[in-house]
Write a structure and sequence with these properties.
By secondary structure, this protein is an alpha/beta fold. The protein has a single domain, classed as TIM Barrel (Alpha-Beta Barrel). Helix content is about 50%, strand content about 15%. The strands form 2 sheets. It has an 8-stranded parallel β-barrel with strand order 1-2-3-4-5-8-10-11, surrounded by 10 helices. Helix 9 links the parallel strand 10 and strand 11. Helix 2 crosses helix 11. It is globular. The protein starts with 6 loop residues before the first helix and ends in a 9-residue tail after the last helix.
């Protein structure tokens, strides 16, 4: 198969009451694990990279790796730029073959966020690539941005933001945070219901790692169409590699401990697919 955009994924998910699981990856093994899990569960998937990941290598290297594996896959897969922080990076991702982008101006005042996001939408329009924006602030640490507080998305501002920017989907602030939760988060679940009632675009939940399964499923039932998972995969991969090396201290073959990390990521990916309810849905896209 070839990479697809997220448009059909979200339309079907929204219609049928489930969410697409979106997984951040850092290396080849994680790409292999995520796609293998999706294949085994016949689930549509979104693979995504943050600016720090692509700066470590490049959008070209990651796009080529994903495209090579997707060519042999039987499920729809989108490649998404997560938390794009500049229009230059958006353009680089488009040239490399990404099929979805996020531009994150949530740290800006509303007027500036609208202008910043609208320009990204205009850049992507000619290629038919959907753009995810963010309004409200998701706390925690994401790349070089860190915040202790989560700012809730204002419904009226969200209507204006969507109308003036033309985004295809919207990441909303409802109390989640990036990274590892230091304490149990308190989510404003009713806000998701209100936002869904006011907006025609799909809603995105960032900070999906570490949330209780029932909470994620409640968010989906209220209107979330995409759930981002990053930290859970990083923890699974790193712990598996560490445990393998502890048990095999003489190992100098990266393929062996890489395979251990890959298997751990596959297991957590399959679990998150089940939580999002997108298993068995690949043929609907």
């Amino acid at each position: 198969m070839s990479l697809v955009t997220t448009n059909a994924m979200f339309a079907t998910a929204r219609k049928n009451g489930y969410a697409i699981a979106a997984f951040n990856f850092e290396n080849m093994e994680m790409i292999q694990a995520i796609i293998a899990a999706g294949e085994e569960m016949n689930a549509p998937l979104i693979l995504q990279t943050t600016p720090s990941t692509v700066h470590y290598a490049s959008v070209d290297i990651f796009a080529a790796s994903v495209a090579a594996l997707v060519k042999r896959a039987s499920i729809p897969v989108a490649l998404h730029l997560d938390h794009g922080d500049s229009h230059e990076l958006v353009q680089d991702a488009l040239r490399a073959g990404y099929t979805s982008v996020m531009i994150d101006g949530s740290h800006l005042p509303l007027e500036e966020n609208i202008a910043f996001t609208k320009k990204a939408v205009e850049l992507c329009a000619g290629a038919g690539i959907p753009v995810e924006g963010e309004l409200g602030h998701i706390g925690g640490k994401e790349d070089s941005t860190e915040s202790e507080d989560s700012g809730y998305t204002d419904p009226d501002e969200a209507v204006r933001f969507v109308n003036e920017t033309g985004v295809s989907s919207l990441a909303v602030g409802v109390g989640t945070a990036h990274g590892v939760y230091a304490k149990k988060p308190v989510l404003n679940l009713e806000l998701i219901s209100v936002l869904k009632s006011k907006l025609a675009v799909p809603l995105v939940l960032h900070g999906g790692s570490g949330l209780e399964d029932a909470v994620v499923q409640d968010c989906i039932a209220r209107g979330i169409c995409k759930v981002n998972i990053a930290t859970d995969l990083r923890i699974a991969f790193t712990q598996a590699v560490s445990e393998y090396l502890k048990s095999n201290p003489a190992c100098i073959d990266p393929k062996k401990f890489g395979a251990a990390g890959r298997e751990a990521v596959k297991k957590i990916t399959m679990n998150r697919i089940l939580v999002c309810g997108c298993q068995g849905r690949a043929n609907e896209i």
